[in-house]
Specification:
The protein has about 190 residues and is an alpha+beta fold. It has a domain of about 60 residues. It has five helices and seven strands. Strand 5 and strand 6 form a beta hairpin. The radius of gyration is 20 Å and the shape is globular.
């Protein structure tokens, strides 16, 4: 799922290359993508079937119902000599509960970012308004890392034209002429219609 998120604008803006006249000559496409668990997807389908009216009965799952799993949160940068590079955090439900009993991996990862940014803000009160990508990553990670589980940073040999047999499952846009000269063009990414 591609979800609206502030980082999609901020990162793209920060990575834009401008010529001497200030005109953008390169601006990367940045998306915030999320893959919910199967139970969450089933709930979304049910919600859509109800014309997005909340179900009359709902509950928050607790520790006795969430018995396994992990949250994988990070960034995948594509289109360079390594093809794709992923860096991020893999935090299991067990690791999350060791840090904060009664919580889950997603809330711990999000709270680690919020806590580390608050700590930086308190120590840098006069810096004014800053976006997350403006902050010094080393100071942020110093506070956040104890809460993030396994930190991974590695190359993946993946391109959007690999394993195109998926087109048998997801109908490919018939107007897609695939930019073979530059495989990283957005039109080469297979998205369900």
């Amino acid at each position: 799922m591609v979800v609206r998120h502030g980082e999609a604008f901020g990162l793209s803006d920060s990575l834009t290359v401008r010529n001497k006249n200030g005109r953008a000559v390169y601006r990367p496409t940045v998306h915030y993508a999320y893959m919910p668990c199967d139970a969450a997807l089933a709930s979304l389908v049910e919600l859509a079937a109800r014309s997005y009216q909340m179900q009359p009965d709902w509950r928050v799952m607790d520790d006795t119902e969430i018995v396994s799993g992990e949250d994988i949160l990070g960034a995948l940068v594509m289109g360079h000599k390594y093809n794709s590079w992923w860096t991020g955090s893999i935090l299991s439900i067990d690791q999350a509960r060791e840090v904060v009993p009664g919580q889950n991996a997603t809330t711990i990862q999000v709270a680690a970012g919020v806590e580390s940014c608050f700590a930086w803000t308190i120590n840098n009160r006069n810096k004014g308004l800053c976006r997350p990508e403006d902050l010094p990553y080393n100071e942020i990670l110093k506070v956040a890392t104890p809460y993030l589980g396994q930190i991974v940073s590695r190359a993946y040999d993946w391109t959007p034209l690999q394993k195109r047999h998926l087109a048998e499952v997801f109908k490919e846009n018939p107007h897609n002429d695939r930019a073979k000269g530059d495989i990283w063009q957005f039109q080469n990414f297979l998205l369900p219609l």
